[in-house]
Write a structure and sequence with these properties.
It is built from twelve helices and 14 strands. It has two domains: 1-108 and 259-358, 3-Layer(aba) Sandwich (Isopropylmalate Dehydrogenase), CATH 3.40.718; 120-258, Isopropylmalate Dehydrogenase, CATH 3.40.718. The longest helix is centred in the N-terminal third of the chain and has 19 residues, at 14-32. It is α/β, with parallel strands linked by helices. Helix content is 40%, strand content 23%. It has a ten-stranded mixed sheet, sandwiched between helices. Strands 6-7 form a two-stranded antiparallel ribbon. The structure holds 3-isopropylmalic acid and manganese (II) ion (MN). Manganese (II) ion (MN) binds next to α9. Residues 249, 253 line the site of manganese (II) ion.
Length: 358
């Protein structure tokens, strides 16, 4: 198979973990006889520093000419004082999601039994580990709704954000949730705030109306506050969670840290076709950037998601997932998941150990 991949490492730990991920991708290409062409694109703070724009036109053009985007992370203290609409997160990340209409964000949260002790949860709650998939709507809701402004009034400043959804937007993300549940344990939880918000009343109505198309999937609804509580109290009750943009943002950080580290969680952002953007759930972690100690697993598992969702290469994706799991089983740990009885390694060593197991 011949494919073009746009590589956008971005800021903070992005370039360090991306270096390991692209090596893994190259190894998979050799091993399975594919030809993957990588082209590097500037994004986020790095793009601001180089060309004065967090989302340069050349980067968008590169994405358009590619079959998928492998994304690192953007943002950091250096760019926090820029005008809001020029900042790496808003202009770079939200801009690229919107440009490519990547409305479905898949964030898996898997606790391996070997890492159960690192979970922030009690052992009896983690049990034999768990596997929750959050399907987050990514191009609508309060992140993009209009009006959105801060205005100066006689009585001081006034700020407004707008949470808005159409039934079509709800239906297309809900179907992603139902389809994902169908391929897993066939349980879908839709999360909303229908006791307060009209956008959630519509959300619940549309999701419920689709249930008849998926009789094999068990659907239930939870309010977002209760869902947050249940995720901590009993995460094993969940299979797939589908929710709107901001609720998904918050719940996915919560669920991604249940395994003990954000450094383990990949994500996929998908549109209508096979094109997708793949990024670690964690972020740029400026506090440890440049030290060579970041966990590359989230970025490497993002490669596995890319191969699976954009290229349909399931065996290749599984080879990566297996190599990651075996490396964990062998006792190798970056600082974020290290415990006394295991071996502490740096980013590059972890990447190499995974690569060797493919
Ligand atoms: C995420 C991040 C982004 C979001 C920020 C950086 C804009 O937190 O991918 O979850 O809120 O979507
Ligand atoms: Mn987030």
């Amino acid at each position: 198979m011949q494919r073009k991949i746009a590589v956008m490492a971005g800021d903070g730990i992005g370039p360090e973990v991306m270096a390991e991920a692209t090596k893994v991708l190259a190894k998979v290409a050799v091993k399975f006889g594919h030809s993957f062409e990588f082209k590097l694109g500037l994004i986020g703070g790095a793009a601001i520093d180089a060309v004065g724009d967090a989302l340069p036109a050349e980067t968008l053009a590169l994405g358009e000419a590619s079959d998928a985007i492998l994304f690192g992370s953007v943002g950091g203290p250096k760019w926090e004082t820029l005008p809001r609409d020029q900042q790496p997160e808003r202009r770079g990340l939200l801009g690229i999601r919107k440009h490519f209409k990547l409305f479905a964000n898949l964030r898996p949260s898997v606790v391996y039994s070997e890492l159960a002790a690192q979970s922030v949860l009690r052992a009896d709650i983690v049990g034999q580990g768990f596997d929750v998939l959050i399907v987050r709507e990514l191009t609508g809701g309060i992140y993009f709704g209009k009006p959105r402004e801060i205005v100066v009034t006689h009585a001081g400043k006034r700020a407004v954000d707008t949470m808005v959804y159409t039934s079509a937007e709800i239906e297309r993300i809900a179907r992603v949730g139902f389809e994902a549940a169908r391929k897993r344990s066939k349980k879908l939880t839709s999360v909303d705030k229908a006791n307060v918000l009209d956008s959630s009343v519509l959300w619940r109505e549309v999701v419920a109306s689709l249930a008849a198309d998926y009789p094999d999937v068990e659907l239930n609804h939870l309010y977002v506050d209760n869902a947050a509580m249940q995720l901590v109290k009993n995460p094993r009750q969940f299979d797939v969670i589908v929710t709107e943009n901001m609720f998904g943002d918050i719940l996915s950080d919560l669920s991604s840290v249940l395994p003990g580290s954000l450094g383990m969680i990949p994500s996929a952002s998908l549109g209508e076709g096979n094109f997708g953007l793949y990024e670690p759930a964690g972020g740029s972690a400026p506090d440890i950037a440049g030290l060579g100690i970041a966990n590359p697993i989230a970025q490497i598992l993002s490669v596995a998601m890319l191969l699976k969702y954009s290229f349909g290469l399931n065996a290749e994706a599984e080879a990566i997932e297996k190599a990651v799991h075996e490396t964990i089983q062998a006792g190798l740990r970056t600082a974020d998941i290290w415990t006394e009885e295991t071996t502490k390694v740096k980013t590059a060593e972890m990447g190499k150990a995974i690569l060797e197991r493919i």
